């Protein structure tokens, strides 16, 4: 059995996150000793890892709790769990496309700044100077 501190070290979560996840019902197998201190067995550690992984996907705690509840219902919920993962997969793909567009924009800006630094182009990046540029056009 592991304490909160040990569970945090094992999973790479903070102690606060371990407590928070247990308080939110994401670790159904967590136990308490006679002093009401949380104690974690291997199954509890697995639930913590699972919650951590899902949280890293951007899944909200409320949805992770729904996923945990579905897992506890057993194999009959595999289709629902799969649908949940597919939904968040689509959201992640959308975020990835948005991130790619941001990177493309930043690469264009970096090239623009490089041209300015090499004096191949005027500095049109500073909004404070745009009024000067408009007069030149």
TrEMBL record:
Residues annotated as coiled-coil are: 89-116
Keyword S-adenosyl-L-methionine tagged: no
Q: Which InterPro entries match?
A: DNA-bd_dom_put_sf (IPR009061), MerR-type_HTH_dom (IPR000551), MerR_fam (IPR047057)
Q: Which UniProt keywords apply?
A: Coiled coil, DNA-binding
Is Coiled coil among this UniProt entry's keywords? yes
UniProt-listed PROSITE patterns: HTH_MERR_2 (PS50937)
Q: Which SMART domains match?
A: HTH_MERR (SM00422)
Which GO molecular function annotations are given, in alphabetical order? Answer: DNA binding; DNA-binding transcription factor activity
Q: Which residues form the HTH merR-type domain?
A: 1-70
The protein's matches in Pfam families, at most eight in alphabetical order, are given as:
MerR_1 (PF13411)
Give the protein name, as stated in the record: MerR family DNA-binding transcriptional regulator
Q: Which organism is it from?
A: Gracilibacillus dipsosauri
């Amino acid at each position: 059995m592991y304490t909160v501190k040990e569970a945090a070290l094992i999973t790479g979560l903070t102690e606060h996150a371990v407590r928070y996840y247990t308080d939110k019902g994401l670790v159904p197998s967590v136990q308490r000793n006679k002093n009401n201190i949380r104690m974690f067995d291997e199954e509890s550690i697995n639930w913590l890892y699972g919650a951590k992984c899902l949280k890293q996907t951007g899944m909200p705690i409320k949805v992770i709790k729904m996923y945990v509840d579905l897992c506890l219902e057993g194999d009959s919920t595999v289709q629902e769990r799969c649908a949940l993962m597919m939904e968040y997969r689509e959201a992640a793909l959308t975020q990835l496309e948005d991130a790619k567009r941001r990177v493309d924009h930043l690469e264009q800006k970096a090239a623009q700044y490089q041209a300015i630094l090499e004096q191949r182009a005027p500095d049109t990046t500073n909004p404070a100077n745009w009024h000067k540029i408009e007069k030149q056009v």
